[in-house]
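Q: Start with the shorter request: fold the first protein.
A: Done. Sequence, then structure:
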Amino acid sequence: FQQDGTRRAFIQFHDTDNTLKLTSEFGNLELRAASTAGSDSDTTYLTVKAGGNISVGGNIELANQKKITIDNTGGTAKDLATVNGSNQMLIGAADLTTIVQGDSSIKLDSAGPVYIDSDTGDIQFQDNSNTKIRFNTLKGDISASGVLYVDHISTGSGEPAENYISITGSTSVFGNITA
């Protein structure tokens, strides 16, 4: 396609790798469709911008058991997000460190239970990269640095709670302690 004698865009079928190429040589490439089926309005829903950024003006829908992947620094595709055959949404890849980061807060919200699972048995809550609370899920141990506030301790087995509590450092008690 030419404008004022200068080629601006072209469509090409590349035989070598069976690829249809749509090329805009002087700007963005837009895919448009009617905003409502049967109408003749042109609404841009996908734009490939000069420089490589992609803008989507609608929902991105993936079929079940399809995924969004990204290449790591070595060029290997890694899962970013997928919905598996059990209808579970997975974020990240099992062989990749996944960090969820926010400028103000991050909220986990569920209509059901919230599970935190570590195959190593080591779950840590950190503040500024310093571990403040650690759970050893293999042993059932909890350790904390700082003040631990407990409203009620029960072993559930009828055995004295002191058989299950180990305190190092100073202690302060408010209320009654019974064995």
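Q: Next, the second protein, separately.
A: Sequence, then structure:
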Amino acid sequence: EPVAVRFADERVWIDRFEALAGATRFSASGALPVFERSPRTGSDGFSLTAIGDIGEAVRAVAATGLGMVPITAGSGPLALRARVAGSFEKPVITSDLEVGPGSMTFEGLSTATDVRLRAHLQDDVVDLSEVHAAYEGATLDATGSLPLAVVGATTATSTSAVASLHATATGLTPAVLRG
């Protein structure tokens, strides 16, 4: 479908963006001020959605060169819903990510199955409400909270939140360590 993007009133407007990459559908709409000093309206912000497959999403990120992805194969559903508020100069991102159930193969390791992830990003903190995977007979379950600054991500806003991770691994055998 054609993309409808325009610039007016110190804002970038995405009237319509729909794209299909393989079985992954991307959509975006909304308006975002370019500058922090731009006048505000009550409806400022972009809504972004990506719904598709884990493997396709990994290949898409790798193809853009935005970052190194250590996942060599993957399958299963993936849904990302995000809202970008603030401005291009100082974006404020809120998002929800749901992955799985699915499988993933990491570089040099065996395939993890029954992979599930539920995460929410707000105020530069990722809240992990569910992390689950089965690997070589072992099971990992985790929840936690991770400020973006802990992984070296710099944002327009800052937080003093601390990282926490609560994990349980069961069924650990030598096969897990061999990968």
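Q: Describe the second briefly.
A: The chain has two helices and eleven strands. The mean pLDDT is 89.
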